[in-house]
Amino acid sequence: MSRYDLFRRRIAPVAFVIAIALMARQSCAKAEHDKATFVLDLGSAAADVRVIDAELWVDSDQLAVFHRTALAGSTMRDVRFVASLPAPDAELRFDVELATTHRRFTRRVHAIDGATVTVELAPDLR
User: Fold this and answer.
1) Rounded mean pLDDT of 107-122?
2) Which CATH fold topology does 34-125 show?
3) Residue-range domain boundaries for the chain
4) What is the spatial distance between Cα 36 and Cα 64, in angstroms, rounded to a whole number?
5) If you average pLDDT over every residue of the chain, what do you get?
6) Is the Cβ–Cβ distance between 92 and 72 less than 8 Å?
7) Distances (CA, A) of 92 to 40, 70, 77, 78, 109
8) Do 39 and 119 touch, CB atoms closer than 8 A?
9) Taking a C-beta distance cutoff of 8 angstroms, is the pair 58, 34 a contact?
């Protein structure tokens, strides 16, 4: 039996099975996400906020979208949403419409499984 035959009959099938197993493991690991609750603290600007949009990004993947509109004559209270994260570090991108202006900004967040992350937005809304 030549080296080529040995490789083709014995080593190649074993290497193929190992490669498939590693790809399956990597695919399953991506499905494991930690859930976190994000609380958006509007502070003193809560009365002025009309519409708030938030997008949760990890690397170049958009994982969640949040949208809330205030009813006429009311203020937003208890602005929160739950999202699943494949990694603890993420970025929240905000698009907020105030009574007199419009603001866009981002915040870096760190969340572990089951965490409640409070994001203070008041400094960016003034």
Assistant:
1) 93
2) Immunoglobulin-like (2.60.40)
3) 1-32, 34-125
4) 12
5) 88
6) no
7) 11, 20, 19, 18, 7
8) yes
9) no
